[in-house]
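Aim 2, interim progress: modelling of the glyceraldehyde-3-phosphate-bound target.
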Amino acid sequence: MPLVSLREVLERAEEGGYAVGAFNCNNMEIVQAIAEAAEMERAPVVIQASQGALKYAGLNYIVSLVRAAAESIRVPVVLHLDHGTDREQVLKALRAGFTSVMIDGSKYPLEENIAVTRQVVEVARPMGVSVEGELGRIMGTEDNIQVDGQEAFFTDPEEAQRFVAETGVDALAVAVGTAHGVYKGEPRLDFDRLKRIRELTRIPLVLHGSSGVPDEAIRRAVSLGVRKVNIDTDIRLAFLQKVREELDRRPEEIDPRRILGPAREAAREAIRYKMRVFGCAGRA
Ligand code: G3H
Ligand code: ZN
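Predicted structure of the complex, ligand included:
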């Protein structure tokens, strides 16, 4: 299928009361793993490119890889810019064919975040491209973006209401206790806050840093209005664990495909599992 917008996929998720999985792609094998998982689970899916992925693979490679993946399967695929840094980067992504963009203005004070996000909505909406904004700061490290514990703060529900009304975003990333990367202890989510944000904003909410969050907590977050769940670290871990195993098992191997092929399968299975937890399996 040709790529679709995030809005389209989220509208169905709202009707069905489930969340769509948004998986980060770092290389060709992971793009293929995501697409295969979506096809096998009959699940709509978001394939997203982080700042690190853009740097590593390049914008044009990402777009071509994801288009090829989408065209080879029969379920809806969204190509999404993850943690877009500024208007210029968003414009590049729009011109290149992304069907959804995130503008992460969470590092700015509220007024500035609203202004920069609204500007992005103004350029993206006429092109049929969806926009995700972020309010509150999500802890941890993703590629080169680092937010430490003290600096981080949770999303304020009243501010979220104002942010959504004044920017017109299609989805809102919230800080409710998750963090990017590997958790040291078990993450504890602030479900009351999540509930309040949803009551006041009434739009699809996005949970970042969802790797390592227990399945039950994810299900509860989905029941409270999370409609997009972002996963990167857990796919990387599944992929790399298999790479290590294969290298240990066959130290003389000279064909990278014999190492990366099984790693791709391991990533695919990890993604399929997540899709079932999010409730998007069988929805496409
Ligand atoms: O934007 C991407 C996600 O928030 C990924 O977070 O690596 O902790 O799963 P994660
Ligand atoms: Zn994130």
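Residues 83, 138, 142, 180, 208-209, 230 surround zinc ion (ligand 2) (CB under 6 Å). The two ends are 12 Å apart (CA to CA).
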